[in-house]
Amino acid sequence: MFTLSQFPLPYAYGALAPYMSPETLELHHGKHLATYIKNLNDLIENTPYESVELYEIIKSSAADKQNPNAQKIYNNAAQIFNHDFFFKGMCNDCNGQIPSEIANAFGSADEFKKQFKNAATSLFGSGYTWLVRDGEDLKIINMQNADTPIAYNMVPLLNLDVWEHAYYVDYQNRRADFIDNYLEHLVDWGQVAENLKQ
Description:
- The chain has helices at 22-44, 54-62, 68-88, 100-106, 109-122, 168-171, 175-186, 189-196, and strands at residues 127-134, 137-144, 155-161.
- It is mostly helical.
- The chain has a 3-stranded antiparallel sheet with strand order 2-1-3, sandwiched between helices.
- A hairpin with a 2-residue loop joins strand 1 (127-134) and strand 2.
């Protein structure tokens, strides 16, 4: 069974201001993530998933999506992973640079940011925009709702949560402004570089 303390923020609730407010992080981490953890615990109690690591729960339930209960398990487990990955991939103006491997793959650092922003802006409804390694290729992909690239054997490198609860308190309907601030001020490029080594 899982607890919120297993998925701590690597910074204080106020650490990402003014680009992400303490109120947003309290709601996003302290309420939304906590709810997915509670839901998953309730769903896996007295099932074979009860003593399985999160990654394996995601992989196994993804393979059994025709089962309505497995779909619920997948959605909540994937949301825990997606949120934890998102939170751990941010810092406040920590002055890292886009790794050269990413800049080279997309033509330049600016071109990567442009393509990532275009993808995140165009994602309809709720979900995540990801930078992933798919085989030998680096790709920017959108995934709706709780879907996660680890269910499809892709390696996640960077993700942006574009569910409304990620930005509405601070930006209302200005998703593009949220994306700009994320790319310019919040991405921990050092963490992305570490992810590239995986």
